[in-house]
Specification:
This protein has 2 domains: 215 residues, no CATH class; 58 residues, no CATH class. 55% of the residues lie in helices and 5% in strands. The chain has 11 helices and 4 strands; from the N terminus they run H-H-H-H-H-H-H-H-E-E-H-H-H-E-E. The strands form 2 sheets. It has a two-stranded antiparallel sheet with strand order 1-2. Strands 3-4 form a two-stranded antiparallel ribbon. The two termini are 19 Å apart.
Amino acid sequence: MSGFERRFGKYAIRNLTGVLILCYVAGYIIEMINPAFINYLTLNPYAILHGQIWRLLTWVIVPPSSSNFIFTLIMLFFYFSIGTQLERVWGTYNYNVYMFLGFLFTIAGAFLMLGISYLVYPGIGTSESVAKYFMVSAGFFSTYYVNMSIFLAYAATFPDSVVLFMFIIPLKVKWLGIIYAVFLLYQGISYISSGIWQIAIAMAASLLNFLIYWLKSRGVIRPGGIKQNVKNMNNARRFRQGVSSGMSGITKHKCAICGRTEADSPNMQFRFCSKCEGNYEYCEEHLYTHKHVKIGDYTGQWSDGQ
């Protein structure tokens, strides 16, 4: 656990995907009651600089557009499922960091679009035409691509998971992730070549959190990663030798990976792994990500520095 996580992890929002889904529900209700009011909630950097600072938060309420009610319910349930699973496996803190990076990068991308627009169109026109231009451009910066980053992260974390494509064809998630990544790349190039660079900026900004995750955290957060496996073995060795990791007192539960006990996290669930040979107990954040311990697998590898 990093010092930053130890200090600010307690502020992480549990079930963040559920909170996001509730924001979408509120957005759909607003659309049904007064569709025009949604325009006052979008991520419009021009309007934000002119005093409408609430847009920095309310753009998250704007739901993904969909004219099919059944498809919308299926989509929301799907993203709730994969988002919840990512949070359970990564841990609430790591998942919060991933999601909020996506939000912050999207906001930064919107203001980048504002600056580029003034450079590309120095004589953009009257204040009224400027407001209309940015009102349209603001629609490109939504949670749509942030949601796509959740799916890409899920595909990278659980590449062998199977989903029913078109509710019929079983496909591994990694292939859907690859197909979608290629499609996004093609789509971005098409937008740039067509002069619709605003959408390209929105796509790049919203998906930047996944790019950082894929480049920096691949093999660390993903189950079975080499670096994480080595860390798990070293932590398991220290646990077997009874190293307390600086904690005192008698406790009933202790995670073999991070060393947390019920004294550190009273609401944390602890479980023994049936696939590990020996009495190895893990917290809910490492139950699905640890390397299973087999007797004899690490003979000669338990010394310090391995």
